[in-house]
Fold this sequence. Notes:
With 340 residues, this protein is α+β, with helices and mostly antiparallel strands. 23% of the residues lie in helices and 31% in strands. It contains six helices and 20 strands. It has a nine-stranded mixed beta sheet with strand order 3-1-2-4-9-8-7-6-5, with helices on one face. The protein has a five-stranded mixed beta barrel with strand order 10-11-18-14-13. It has a three-stranded antiparallel beta sheet with strand order 15-17-16. Helix 4 (268-277) crosses helix 5. The N and C termini lie far apart (50 Å).
Amino acid sequence: MSLKLNPDLWCDYSLYGLRLHSNLPIPGLVAAAPAAVMPGDVRVWLNAMPPELCDITPNAELVFYVSAETDEQGTPSLKIHRGVRGDYFRLIFEDGVQFLVDRAGSVIGMTWRESTTYEDAVTYLVGPIMAFVLALRNITCLHASAVAIKDRAIALLGPSGAGKSTTAAMFARLGYPVLSDDVVPLRDQRDHFLTQPGYPCLRLWPSSVDALFGSPEALPCLTPTWEKRGLDLTREAYKFHTQESPLAAIYILDERCASAPAVAEVSAREGLLALLANSYAANVINPQQRALEFQVLSRVARHVPMRRVKAHTDPARLPELCAAIIDDFQTHAHNQKSPT
């Protein structure tokens, strides 16, 4: 079903350093002042398709990417098709949510089945779809969470399940502002990198909520059909950092152990391998974009201090991990000269 749209009702948001101009409200995003002239970096059509992409046909598409992950019926979690002329991409998730994205990453259209809630569909938009858009724009993203310490940012790097969001949530409880969760875009300044803010929410599994707040029900579910829960950073006790900040250090979350917390330096080579393994959208970019990403991440490994950190197996010891990271940051990374 498509909607009859009123251009006067379009909404402007700021996300990952881009301005989004949406035909419908996008829950959870930071509102931006309406643009004086240009409608925005990215135009988003929710429950509708952009006029410039309405005449395309699925019969004129090539398979670009198929996820190895599948559901119980064998349906891939994500399939990406590309227009034969390379002018757009169609991303299809296992629950039927579909996106059309133009080659420039400037137009997004989204549709979903009646069985899918609006909140469910939007979770794709603010995560993997925006990461895909940033990749199309040759903006490198880390699969990480970012926290602000004074005027700088640290990134908590690691694969799914490493504890990035949980550690960021503990930093939030300790009074530190959070910049982003899961997707951390880097604005390349050659000898330094600026992290871009995401949206004011941390997505936590019930086990993490239980460890942090004493009960899995302490935080509300993000959507009616998803068990992940959201920590609202706009609440009085928390802070969301809305300004881009220089990336001062990267902490790679290692396996938990009983002798933790521990912080250890890593070589530039080891750091680069970790960055390559935890770049966002690495599987869905073309070889030319991958080569560019390699160049960017090589410079990140040379210019940004990186550490490997171990958390304790006991979640109650998580504040000690945050304290160890803060102490390391204040001793080493924060003493570096600020970029100008």
